[in-house]
Protein 1
Amino acid sequence: MPDLPYTLIAELTYRCPLRCPYCSNPTDARDHGPELSTSEWQTILTQARELGVLQLHLTGGEPLARKDLEALVRHARSLDLYVNLVTSGVPLSKERLAELARAGLDNVQVSIQSIDRARSRAIAGVDVFDDKRQVLEWVKALGLPLTLNVVLHRDNLDEVEALIAYAEQVGADRLELANTQYLGWALVNREALLPARAPLIAAHTLASKAAQWLAGRMEVLFVMPDYHTRHPRACMDGWARRFLHIAPDGTALPCHAARSLPLTFLRAPEHSLAEIWHRSPAFEAFRGQAWMKPPCRDCERREQDFGGCRCQAFALTGDPAATDPACSLSPHRKRVTDARAQAGEQRPRRYLYRGTRGPGAPG
Amino acid sequence: MTIEPARRYQLADKVKLVFDSNRKAPMLLYPERGLSLNEVAAAIARACGQPVTVAEIARILRERFPEASPQTIEQDVIAFLQELERRGLLQSVG
Ligand code: SF4
Ligand code: SF4
């Protein structure tokens, strides 16, 4: 019997007014099916709770783009799920946020791009700096716990100290300084985003110190990019072990990027979540260790990191069962070290914004 | 942050204590993860629903678990509060 899923990540829509070049949405998002209806999402939430899920992340794209967000929050609350809204904060009014709070939000996670207006605009592709600042004030005024999230890359890594001060100023309960994961749009933009080692280490040191002195007041989390670590991260705590991810069209996945893998994923609520979780071949595919190849198969770390990220293994080696090249023991490690060597070079780089013409993304 | 006897502590705002019927265990829920609790930990977490000192929590636990030694109880309380603190689930409220 597999473990019970603990977290449901409901990607309500791929629509978003921002165009971040590291967006985790698929690069071919436009080719996917229509979004689920309100009642389909409600069925999914109910089934998820029955299956063991206790925690819900409402995300996207931008979940605020769904007019039925309040109804979904209310439904989740009635099921006693812990509800976290993951948002860019745009577009939002104070009234709507108050309504969402009444509907039952337990936590709000707002992402910002930079503490500098011009930079923020250059990264998000639109000018939403002031809107976000406003939203942060409303979240605190309504007494909601606030997680401030910043995706780090070479064009904002030097802001870590200022970001910590900013997070304190806006009263964040938690600050997540998470380096880009190089999948999807971020892989397309890797050359422009991947930082060199020295600034990364400097930023990490600053964040670790801040985490210590702020303990008990504000949490500070710093996530290294796996391109610069010796071992891969334990992606999703292991394939289909704790997380269940539903894409806007109902496709059920073990993680947001899994759609890129050569597997057949079923759609909810057409197929029940119990069937998908317990009996679908795609969810079984990388559970346990039987699928592993050397060097993972005989490695003592295999129960800690599960061989790393399947999507990264596939994207960089063409084999979804390969050792994640973020691991220093991977025979394909060169894919990562070459990219890293390039990151040290100084030359002009341009973003390919999400949603603009690019690989697999017409228009 | 070390746990100090004179200070009052409370669960962080984002933390919710629930009983999970699927896993048949009390759980602490927060945005990043969930923490499955044993009976003692759940009693401590419940006590931290409002600002309390270590001594106050220990008193509540002594009533609940009269057979346990007061010394063990106090050690358990401090150890669990430290665990919560390490995960960012505890706030110090003066
Ligand atoms: S990463 Fe940026 S573009 Fe992608 S969904 Fe989030 S805010 Fe929108
Ligand atoms: S060889 Fe595989 S299991 Fe071992 S550290 Fe690398 S990725 Fe992890």
Protein 2
Amino acid sequence: MRQVVGLTSTYSSDEFGVCSALYELGGMVVMHDASGCNSTYTTHDEPRWYDQDSMIFISAISEMEAIMGDDDKFIEDLVQTANELKPRFIALVGAPIPYMMGTDFDAIAQIVEERTGIPSFGFMTNGMQYYPNGISMAMERIVDFYCTEKKETQQNTVNILGATPLDFSINGSVESIQEWLKSNGYTVNCTLAMNCSLEDIQNMSKASINLVVSTGGLKAAKLLESRFGIPYVVGVPYGKKFASKLLEKLKLKKTSLGWDRKQVKKEKHLALIGEAVTSISLACAMEEENDVSVIVLDPLNENNELYRTLDVYVPEEDDVMEQIKSVDGIIADPLYKALCSNKEFYPYAHVAFSGRIFEKDLPNLINTEMKRK
Amino acid sequence: MLKLAIYGKGGIGKSTTTANLAAAFSKLGKKVIQIGCDPKADSTMNLLGGTPVQPVMNYIREKDEEPETIEDIAKVGYGNVLCIETGGPTPGLGCAGRGIITTFSLLEDLELFENYQPDVVLYDVLGDVVCGGFAAPIREGYAEHVLIVTSGEKMALYAANNIYSAVQNFEDRGYASVKGIVLNRRNVENEYEKVSNFAKERNLEIIADIPRSNDITHYEDQGMTVIQGDASLPISQVYLDLAKKLLEE
Ligand SMILES: Nc1ncnc2c1ncn2[C@@H]1O[C@H](COP(=O)(O)OP(=O)(O)OP(=O)(O)O)[C@@H](O)[C@H]1O
Ligand SMILES: [Mg+2]
């Protein structure tokens, strides 16, 4: 059956992608939607929620406000709250209800910006797309707005783009990427968007190269390339061997994928389900150190520019089931196990899929041995 | 209880037909409710002598709360017709269709039919069935019959066909069915023939043939239906005949 998720879960939405990307930047982020279902962001998809403050709000739109299209009340609430909290910026995040009413977020952002003097952005998310779209939108927009000035390029200085807990959890993976870069002679400039400030973003133009660690970071990388000529390499340094290959790519100072797109099917053939950049990197890391081939099944977006020869887009649960028929084992979030009853299953939790349920079992595989006995 | 929904192209004469029908039904001794389902809220104007009723959506917008009694949002007009207008959000904002659905469930909460016990309920609905909200009047429990108002003009017939198809589409949902065509004349060439062919092709009946009439304009200017203005006029007789016919069937 099309568009039905019967056995597994669904990924975090574009709405939450925006929230996650902007969480640490000091802005006021307001989801314009009914209160209720959006709390899953805080309870499931945002591992920083309880330890780190952020001005994330829900407008709690009512049925009547929706019918009346009462933008004024929303605007009034925004202006009042912003004047009290004095955020660095204001982000308005779209959701299914305003999407159906055709709420004009850019126009509202403009009014709010005029009335508060605080930079305001409207994000036309709708809760029906997946989180990478939201991360992508947010990162591109924020870089576009704040990183406008060319700073003198500093050699061997790198920005990391696309880092959020939705793909990397808060298990130290992002810090490990930073350490790996440092130990290889790089200065880490800005990590978009974890442990990151708006000042860091303003200074992104100093970098000599960008490392894109998730599909959510791609658009911002392309923007920085076209605006300042900063090349980018796509990949996450999972596994010792793949990490050193990725390092070689970084040293070339040219825009490229961190992996080879040619792929050969091996006797032992596995499937890895997940976000394209992190999953392809991890698949490569496994292939580098073991006698296996690992195809990536990407349920999120069709990322043809990233896929290797055997990787595929699997928009529907049925597509996943079809694809895993021909593999010997599956590496995926534990919630996928329901689809894989008669296959070897290697759990690898993904916050954007199972939220915080398996948070504690999430391994940090950055630059580690990937050899399986 | 006879429950009718009147649909048709914008400006074709739905509200005129509905209000005159309401007046005619009341002349025949029936207890009538007319509900205007159009953000313009001009359906019941000619039953109210120029002092319109506050539409439900406007009430909610102004008071910021839902009405508690029928009296809050209804007004008694000519012939004791109870007049209600759904109204809608500020033009260009929100969701008018959802507003109609919400108004209906509100009227249900206020137990309108139970309390008022009408013999006839008329729904005057905006031009086209543009979204779910504008199909609400023909959902189960509301109108059982649809009257399509059209002239012999091409675009009016085009709209009539769209409405007919929409209603057909809902057949398996137990929604209303098309009762017939009300020909509201614009005096175009071969008008009767055109409309009668249209009706025949769809197995429909022309249940009224309303001439173009200056009396309608004349009394409209005074905030009246022709029935109220002068029930003995031939044009009034047309509406009275239609009302009788609908009651008989
Ligand atoms: N038979 C008729 N003879 C003369 N004038 C008529 C006739 N029917 C309608 N009109 C006039 O046409 C105008 C439009 O009619 P009316 O408001 O009833 O249309 P409507 O279909 O309800 O329009 P809307 O789609 O805007 O709600 C009115 O001024 C009305 O007086
Ligand atoms: Mg009308």
